Amino acid sequence: MPETTTDTSSNGFEPRIVAFFCNWCTYLAADLAGTSRMKYAPNARVIRVMCSGRVDPQFVLEALANGADGVLIGGCHPGDCHYQEGNYKALRRFKLLQRMVADLGVEEERLRLEWISAAEADRVRVVMDEMTDQLRRLGPFRHEEAVMAIAAQQPQEVPV
Ligand code: FES
Fold first, then answer.
1. What's the confidence (pLDDT) of residue 14?
2. Beta 111-115 vs 70-75: how paired, if at all?
3. Domain 15-153 class?
4. Which end of the chain is more exposed for a tag (fewer CB within 10 A), N or C?
5. Does the CB atom of residue 40 touch ligand 1 within 6 A?
6. Which atom of ligand 1 sits closest to the CA of residue 50?
7. Which ligand 1 atom is the nearest neighbour of the CA of 25?
8. Residue 107 pLDDT class (50, 70, 90 cuts)
9. Would you say the CB of residue 77 lies under 6 angstroms from ligand 1?
10. Which atom of ligand 1 is nearest to the CA of 52?
11. What is the mean pLDDT of the chain?
């Protein structure tokens, strides 16, 4: 596991981030950050998925509805997806999600999609630290019930 830094300078609030990382790129980059002993904010709980295209919008909504203050998705760079177009699918879904949560008044910084290759360990560090700082400034997520209501309305498979 990576070494971590903790900055509790802003009112003591420590955001919880759920991070869905592609097995072939961002997850490996996070692993490399760990073995390289890079220090970054320990606020994310990483969930490994086989492709960013596997991240159903329902996963994101349920994370927010169940206590996450932000959700990060990490996938392979365009053109590098092991399943050819999974990351393009992830991008389309992400744009849809942004519009959905914006209608609830949710700040767009709570959702983030990044392309991070296996070699870009430092990018993982930067993104984790940036997102944690942004969420510290925004404060706790307070739209759980509204998000839960949207999640309940979603079909099992969202068309993309
Ligand atoms: S395999 Fe990494 S985003 Fe598709």
1. 97
2. parallel
3. alpha beta
4. N
5. no
6. 1
7. 2
8. very high
9. no
10. 3
11. 90
Nearest-atom index, ligand 1, CA of 90: 3
In angstroms, the Cα distances linking 153 to 34, 57, 95, 112, 149 are 39, 12, 18, 23, 7
What pTM, to 2 d.p., does this model score? 0.89
Distance 25 CA to ligand 1 centre (A): 7
Q: Determine the distance separating the centroid of ligand 1 and the alpha carbon of 45, expressed in angstroms.
A: 19
CA–centroid distance for 27 within its chain: 12
SS (H, E, C) the chain: CCEECCCCCCCCCCCCEEEEEECCCHHHHHHHHHHCCCEECCCEEEEEECCHHHCCHHHHHHHHHCCCCEEEEEECCCCCCCCCCHHHHHHHHHHHHHHHHHCCCCCHHHEEEEECCCCCHHHHHHHHHHHHHHHHHHCCCCCHHHHHHHHHHCCCCCCC
Domain ranges of the chain: 15-153
Instruction: Indicate whether residue 51 lines ligand 1 (CB < 6 A).
Output: yes
Q: Tens digit of pLDDT for each residue in 20-65?
A: 999 999 999 999 999 999 999 999 999 999 999 999 999 999 999 9
pLDDT digits (tens, 9 = 90+) for 36-47: 999 999 999 999
